Amino acid sequence: MLTSVNSGARLDRLPIGPFHYRIMWLIGIGMFFDGFDIYIAGTVLGSAISSGFSTLQQNALFVSATFVGMMIGSFMTGFLGDRYGRRFTYQFNLLIFGLASIAAAFSPSMTVLILLRFIIGVGLGAENVVGYSTMTEFVPARSRGRWLGLMAVFVVTGLPIASLTGYVLIPIFGWRVMFIIGGIGALIVWYLRKNLPESPRWLESVGRRDEAEELIQSIEAETARGAALPPVVPVVTPIPATLAALFSPPLLPRMIVGCVTLIVINTLLYGFVTWLPTFFIKQGLSIATSFGYTLLMGLGAPIGSAIGALTSDNWGRKPTIVGASCVAILFGIIYPFIKDPILLPVVGFALTVPIYVLVAVLFGIYIPELFPTEVRLRASGICNTFGRGATIVTPFIVVSLFQSAGIGGVLALMVGLLFVQIIVVAVLGVEPRQRALEELRPEQDPVPRSAIA
């Protein structure tokens, strides 16, 4: 019989080493293809509508089908991940969207493509939940924000890469090549991820203590490489959280924060960013110019995510969320009034950066930190379900606003949602900066642990 584990404290006191980098790359590359597959919507739909393969209304159905699938995937993966483990779940979802993406490349009609996009969405929704949550459980508290922010950089790098790939390849091979690239990439990562370990925190939380202890010992040995490790800072053994606890104080306010912020950021991304090529084409730009503008603005995605990764540990999660929301509001108000063809992508770039600061902090860092290990994936999955669910109707609202009020009408909706987000985070949000996950449990006193800060 192996000794009792103390997974959280033992993982948090480890120095960053090759183990952490291996975990980051194995999770991060999979999440890159997740982001790539999401963001190909902009270039694919712009090309499909230009070639007559689809209509504006069918494009809206395509986007909605994606988010119906992502909503279902987010919800299901929360329960699967907390019940069967992180490792099983992230392998399962990669296989789903990898195979479905390849099949989508051979769609004979837009109707079939929309159906396959729904299946792809199931896998995409699952990957987003389990990837960030798994990384959260491995990284020490002192640098958790930076590392999780880097995960978001992997994801959003899919935006400029998808835009560049579409700009280069779609005029030559057509939009179908985008699905082939995304699908093959996902299946390659699925094979490589077979060596990714289970989360010791999850193993301990479900009573598989011997397995957790064995895994922790192997991680410690790999990280130490013969040197002495820092002492373990003891933590109070927490009371296990239940699903019902998510819907009553003190976890309920965190659920409200999670749901509201993910509704806002999903609407920003999929009510504005992914529609940019379509907006540009409908405003009279050529498909090449549209993709070029989108690529330039998309460069703000990794830059914004990197800023979020660097500031969340230094400034804190709440100040970063509120600050980025204010900057996005400023440029969101300015953008509709820009007519100059040179200034348009520049101001668009300036608007894209704070949006992706929010992407990094909300998706990658803040939401997974809010909930105990026993229900982390379920809670994150439910919050993502609300976020993805809101985007089911967003395409139809966006089309209506764009047709009646132009890009200004679309941006007015985004600005209003950002104001709501600022209020909710400022009033109900907690600050997890440099605090162990176990300390963030509401039933415990939030005393900072300077030993690991």
Describe the structure in your own words:
The protein is mainly α and 453 residues long. Helix content is 74%, strand content 0%. It has one domain (7-225, 245-440): Growth Hormone, Chain: A (Up-down Bundle), CATH 1.20.1250.20. The chain has 17 helices and no strands. Helix 4 packs antiparallel against helix 8 (176-192) and helix 15 (317-334) runs antiparallel to helix 16 (343-369). The longest helix is centred in the C-terminal third of the chain and has 53 residues, at 376-428.
Largest sheet: none
CATH class: Mainly Alpha
State the helix count. Answer: 17
| Strand content range | under 5%
Q: What characteristic shape results from the CA principal axes?
A: globular
Outline the secondary-structure elements.
Blueprint: H1 7-12, H2 18-51, H3 56-84, H4 86-104, H5 110-136, H6 144-156, H7 158-173, H8 176-192, H9 200-205, H10 209-224, H11 252-271, H12 276-282, H13 287-298, H14 300-314, H15 317-334, H16 343-369, H17 376-428
Helix pairs in contact: 2-3, 2-5, 2-6, 2-7, 2-8, 2-12, 3-4, 3-5, 3-17, 4-5, 4-8, 5-16, 5-17, 6-14, 6-16, 7-13, 11-16, 11-17, 12-13, 13-16, 14-15, 14-16, 15-16, 15-17
Can you describe this structure in just a few lines?
The protein has 453 residues and is mostly helical.
What structural keywords apply?
disordered C terminus, 17 helices, mainly alpha, 0% strand, 453 residues, Growth Hormone, Chain: A, globular
